[in-house]
């Protein structure tokens, strides 16, 4: 009887020991995981080179963007050449000439949108949208892309002089465009788009935005939400 109780106590002690060690090990694993996740938050940021690719016309590129999978890129050159390039296959997806011959400045409509305001040396502006897509034909994923002109290909004449800074803000019904030209003047235009409830046709109209005289030379413009405020910044940090 005593030997049986001794055996039961021994087994219980071993089970308790194993369970206790397992719990401690589990806690240590959680600690190690959290340590590896939290420590990098307090380290200095760093950039590592993962891909080296030589693109055509790199000396003239004014704008570039890459898709989430890092295998397709868009580039726009000073001469108005738009190209989508597949990095994985090292070939051009598509290319076209924008309706602007000499581009002076490019700005994103919003940081999260793939919509650009592009200005030329004659004060004209176009809005260019682009989108990366995945094509799974043939059983493999292949990155493709397409461009759109939400306000048409005809340049919007914002100024008669070269634009040095530009920004736009688009919502469901309108697009506001503001630019600063080589004569030190601000120009603004708001373009409305409304669908005819009967015919379904998109009716567009536009009007000028009265802009104030300014005493600084901005190289950056930003229209805030609701199109009520405009931020201007200079190279030396003045706002």
Task: Describe the fold and architecture.
The protein folds into 2 domains: 2-42; 102-233, no CATH class. The protein is built from 1 helix and 15 strands; from the N terminus they run αβββββββββββββββ. It has one helix at 2-38; strands at residues 61-66, 72-77, 81-86, 91-97, 103-108, 115-120, 124-135, 142-148, 156-157, 163-170, 174-181, 186-195, 202-209, 220-223, 230-233. The longest helix has 37 residues, at 2-38. It is elongated and about 105 Å long.
Task: Summarize the topology.
Layout: H1 2-38, E1 61-66, E2 72-77, E3 81-86, E4 91-97, E5 103-108, E6 115-120, E7 124-135, E8 142-148, E9 156-157, E10 163-170, E11 174-181, E12 186-195, E13 202-209, E14 220-223, E15 230-233
Antiparallel strand pairs: 1-2, 2-3, 3-4, 5-6, 6-7, 7-8, 7-9, 10-11, 11-12, 12-13, 14-15
Question: Which features would summarize this protein structure in a list?
Answer:
single chain, 239 residues, alpha+beta, 2 domains, five-stranded antiparallel sheet, four-stranded antiparallel sheet, 15% helix, 42% strand
Sum this structure up briefly.
By secondary structure, the chain is an alpha+beta fold.
Largest sheet: 5 strands, antiparallel
Measured as a percent range, the helix fraction is 10-25%
Shape field: elongated
| Average of per-residue pLDDT values | 79
Oligomeric state as shown: single chain
Distance between the termini: 90 Å
Strands, total number: 15
Structural class: alpha+beta
Order of helices and strands: HEEEEEEEEEEEEEEE
Low-confidence segments, given as residue ranges, are: none
Strand content: 35-45%
Number of H/I helices: 1
Number of structurally distinct domains: 2
The Cα radius of gyration reads 29 Å
């Amino acid at each position: 009887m005593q030997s049986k109780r001794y055996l039961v106590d021994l087994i219980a002690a071993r089970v308790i020991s194993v369970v206790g060690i397992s719990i401690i090990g589990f806690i240590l694993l959680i600690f190690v995981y959290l340590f590896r996740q939290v420590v990098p938050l307090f380290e200095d940021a760093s950039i590592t080179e993962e891909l080296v690719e030589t693109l055509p016309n790199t000396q003239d590129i004014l704008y570039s963007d890459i898709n989430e999978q890092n295998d397709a890129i868009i580039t726009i050159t000073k001469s108005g050449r738009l190209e989508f390039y597949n990095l994985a296959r090292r070939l051009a997806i598509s290319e076209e000439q924008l309706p602007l011959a000499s581009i002076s400045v490019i700005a994103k409509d919003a940081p999260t949108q793939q919509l650009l305001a592009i200005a030329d040396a004659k004060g004209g502006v176009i809005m260019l949208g682009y989108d990366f897509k995945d094509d799974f034909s043939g059983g493999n994923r292949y990155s493709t892309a397409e461009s759109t002109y939400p306000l048409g290909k005809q340049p919007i004449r914002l100024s008669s002089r070269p634009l040095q800074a530009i920004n736009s803000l688009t919502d469901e019904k309108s697009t506001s465009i503001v630019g600063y030209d080589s004569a030190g003047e601000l120009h603004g235009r708001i373009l409305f788009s409304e669908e005819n409830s009967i015919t379904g046709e998109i009716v567009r109209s536009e009007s000028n935005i009265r802009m104030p005289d300014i005493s600084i030379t901005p190289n950056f413009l930003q229209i805030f939400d609701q199109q009520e405020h405009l931020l201007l910044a200079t190279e030396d940090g003045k706002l």
